[in-house]
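> run fold Tf2-1-like SH3-like domain-containing protein
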Amino acid sequence: MVNTQLNFSTAYHPQTEVVNKSLGNLLRGLVGEHVKSWDQKLSHAEFAHNQAVNRSTGFNPFQVVYSVTPRGPLDLLPMPNKTRNNLEQSARKYKTAADRKRRHMEFEVGHFVWAVLTKDGFSAGDYHKLAARKIGPVEIVEKINPNAY
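> ok
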């Protein structure tokens, strides 16, 4: 009717029993007093087992199967430092490129300049896409620092 077939397997397989014993020891250490929560710790035990180097092969089981070392939580620790270093390096490159186009100019109180307006610099209702973005000449009345007037 359903086309099923009954297959028999051996009741005892020594290699499987070694792995089961190892996982049992790992789980025993992980669950401690909370024996009923063993299923929640199974993934941790599996990860630990897959990270452990085998004496015979010299590799961990994950490396044998996938030819790469599994990444664990401790492998992620250097990540923020690498990311920060990459961002700082990029910022230096961008600053160098921007500085090539930049002119250093300082103005004094009483000088007349053109002011560039951002959207926030317009009065309510005066901003539209075709509005002039510069006003002036306007007189500098106060110097706050070399970059702000």
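The longest strand covers residues 134-139.
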